[in-house]
Amino acid sequence: TNKSKWVTEADQPFNEDHAADKTNHLIMVAGHSVIVAGNLEDAETDENVWYLLDYQKGKGLPQAILAHIKNGISEATKDPHSLLIFSGGETRGKTGPVNEGSSYFRVADALDLWGDSKKSVRARTVTEEFATDSFQNLMFSICRFKEVTGQYPQKITAVSFSFKQHRFEEMHSKALLWPSDRFHYVGVDPPVSTGFNLEEASKGELENAAQLFEDDPYGCLSLVLQQKRHERNPFKRTPPYVLTCPEMRDLLRWCGPGLFRGKLPWAR
To answer: Could you tell me the sign of the dihedral formed by the alpha carbons of 151, 154, 159, 163, in that order?
Structure first.
C-alpha cells in the first residue's frame, strides 16, 4: 500500500489496552540496515532505500529485511502474549544517527504490514536501539523486554537469516544461559533469484563470525569483534541496560572467555 503518511489516526497506539504489559514472550528481529530514502513503499525491492555496504549489494538484502519484518509480525500475531522487538543501533557513521530498530518499524508502518488493525501487533512492538552485533541483539532485547513489561521473558523467538541459526542457538543463547527449550529460531532467507547465495553466506558466517564467537562467546576479547563493535558505534552511544536491568548487570559486564557463572532470573 502506498501511504503518503506513515502514521494515521487509525494506527493503534503503543500498549493500547495494556497489550504490551501482558506479554511473556519476546520476539526479536535482528536489524541489518537503516533507511536512507523516503520512498519506503519500495523498501522490499529497491536497494537505494537502505544503506548497504558493498558486500551487501546484489544479494537480496531488501527482500531479506522485509521477510524478517513480516515473519516477526506473523510470529507475534500467533501469540497475543508476545512483545515484538526490532533490534539494532545507529551503526553507520555515514547515515547520521539513524538506527536499525526504528527503521524496521517505519517500514512496517509505511507498507502497512501490521495485519488486523483492531488488535494489531503494532500496540505491542518496540525497538531496541543500541545493539551492534547479533549477540547484543539478543542480550539487549531481553533487557528491553524487562524495561517495557517489568519482568523478563519466559520464552524467546529470534528471527534472522537461516545461516545464523547455529550462532544464535549454540553460542549466543548458551552464553546467556538461556534454557534451550524456551528458545525458538526462525531462519528466513531471500529467494535465490535476488542474488542471495546460501552457500557463500554460510561460508562467510563461519569465517567472519561463528568461529570468532566460538572462542569469544561475549564478543569482547577478540580484536576483530571488539573492532566491529567500535566501528558500529560511530555516535558513541552507551546502552542504559546496566541501570534498567540490575539483575543482568554482571552478565552485561562479563567478558569471558569462560561462560558466565553468576545468578540470572531465567537460569534454572
So the answer is: positive
In whole angstroms, give the CA distance from residue 166 to residue 69: 21
Q: Count H helices, E strands: the chain?
A: 10, 5
Q: For cell 547515515, name the residue.
A: 95
Q: What is the mean pLDDT of the chain?
A: 94
Average pLDDT over residues 175-204: 94
Q: How many CA atoms lie within 13 A of 140 on its CB side?
A: 24
Instruction: List pLDDT tens digits, range 13-37.
Output: 999 999 999 999 999 999 999 999 9
Question: Residue 9 burial (CB < 10 Å; 0-12/13-18/19+)?
Answer: exposed
pLDDT at site 209: 78
Hey, CA dihedral for 263, 84, 242, 137, is it positive or negative? positive
**Residue 100: predicted pLDDT:** 98
The enclosing H or E element of 139 equals helix 134-149
Residue 68 to residue 64: CA distance in whole angstroms: 6
Q: Are 112 and 7 in contact (CB under 8 A)?
A: no
Omega of the bond prior to 257 within 30 degrees of 0, cis? yes
Burial 99-131 (b: 16+ CB within 10 A, else e): bbbbbbbbbbbbbbbbeeeeebbbbbbbbbbbb
Contacts of 60 (CB under 8 A, 6+ apart): 189, 190, 191, 194, 195, 196
pTM above 0.85, yes or no: yes
Per residue in 214-259, pLDDT tens?
999 999 999 999 999 999 999 999 999 999 999 999 999 999 889 9
